[in-house]
Structures are given as structure tokens and as C-alpha cells.
Amino acid sequence: MRIIWTFIFLVITSVCMAQNNAAVQKQAVLIKKNISFAANYSYSAYPDYNIDSLCLITAKKTAKLMSGSNFSNTYYKSLGLKLAVEIKDKTNVKVFNFGYDCGGTRRVITHPIIQWKNVIGKTFAYNLSAKINCNFFEIHQLKSKGRNLYLLIGVEAGDSNCYQGIAYVIEIKGDKLILDFPAFVNHPYLNLCNREFEFDENTQTLTSLLEHASVPFPLTYSINAQGDYSKDQNANKKLEELIGEDYRKEPSIFYLKFNGQQFVKKTKR
């Protein structure tokens, strides 16, 4: 009798696994189709098409596909995803991108999806484009006792006058992704027009410099335009005090040092 029940259990398990694999494959085909369409999208050819909605839905489906999966980078590449950054430590944080050319001054709008592992190697993923559009190209580990903190650096076109330089601190806490870690006063990220960011892992120093010879974008406006994090006017004032003096100098360069909890002012390199 036990043998019969074991056989029935194995049959049911096999059927469930087959159905699950078929569902995953169906999702993967749809994701690949959508990413390909977005990559070749032209506003002039499809002026009434809601490409934003398609990309948001696709990013959400992609994050769901990545969660709990251990597909290879090559597999994700076959779906049209670009591996933007990866850090090979216990969390194995990866950011994959896809996007589309909107045809306007913003040009390519990037949709990043982040993937990581917890302490037992289980994989999780999140649609990071729900928070920010950015083409991240660097990831650095921040030195912080008892925390898994990472600095993402990237760029994204804003409009014809603004190319956004972005430095974003995230925290991995097991199966949780913390996106509002207050690394810059109360902000998890800096998003400043026409700035380049560089990070020295040895000294934990973040450098920001004006991308080209031009007048720095009004700092007060930039700080007050960073979503919900800009609602606290006292915090905005502290952030402006943190970077404002060197931001407005010629040349426009400021240095911040990570002290294990936050970025603080560093007057000398």
C-alpha cells in the first residue's frame, strides 16, 4: 500500500513540476517578445502605443521570473536582458536592464531589475524601475558592520539640458531589499544633473564632478525634486549644506566619505 501511495505522490509531483515549467516557459516567451518590441520601438511608427505600460508590466513579470530561479546570465541575455552590474559575494547582487527609445529628449528609458540571494542561497528579485529609471554601470560594497550595503552608480537622460548622474545606496537584508536607506541625510540616492560619480572602495570616498564645462544645475531645485524624500525641508537644507559649498565652486567637485552609516562631508581627497 505504501508503494502505491509513493507512486501516486511521485506522479502528482511530476505533473505539477511539468505544469510549472510550462508556465515559466510561457512567461519567458512573452518577456522576450515584449523586450524585443521595446528595443525596436519607434514613436513615429506607433504614436498611440502605450510603451510605458508595456515596459512596466514586462519589468514586473521579469522580476517574478527571476525570483526563486537560478537561470544563468546567458539565459537572461537570450531574453534580451543586459547584465549591467554584478558583485560576486554572498548576496551576488545583479542588475539587469532593458529599455526603449522614447523618441523625445529623454531618449532611452532604462528599466532595471535587481536580483540577489539570501544566506541560504535562495534567489529574490525586484523591479527597480518601480523606484527609478537608471542605467547602472557600477556596484560597490560599502563598509558597514553587520549590514550588506551597496552603492550603485549610473546615468540616465533627463532632458536636453540634464543628463542625470545617480548614486543609489541599497541594503540587502536576507530576503528583503531596502531601497530607502538614508545614506545621504534622509535620501537613499543622489540624482544630480550633468554630474559624474566615482567611488574609491579603499577610502570609501564618493567623488562628484561636473560632467563638462558648464554652469552647475541649480542645486536647490535638484534636491527639492527628488520625490517623497524632498518633503522634509529640514533634511533638504542639511543635504544642501552637505554638498552645496563645493558644488558651487569652480571647478565644481565635492567629496563625501561613507562612515559606516551615512555619507558625510570630506573636505580633502
Largest sheet: 5 strands, antiparallel
Radius of gyration: 22 Å
> Which range best describes the helical content: under 10%, 10-25%, 25-40%, 40-55%, 55-70% or over 70%?
25-40%
Mean residue pLDDT: 89
Task: Describe the protein's architecture and organization.
With 269 residues, the chain is an alpha+beta fold. It has a domain at 1-99 and 112-128. Helices cover 30% and strands 33% of the residues. It has 5 helices and 13 strands. It has helices at 2-39, 51-66, 73-78, 219-224, 233-247; strands at residues 82-86, 94-101, 108-117, 123-127, 135-142, 148-159, 162-173, 176-178, 189-193, 195-200, 205-210, 253-258, 263-265. A hairpin with a 5-residue loop joins strand 3 (108-117) and strand 4 (123-127). Helix 1 (2-39) runs antiparallel to helix 2 (51-66). It is globular, with a radius of gyration of 22 Å. The model is unreliable at 15-19 (pLDDT under 50).
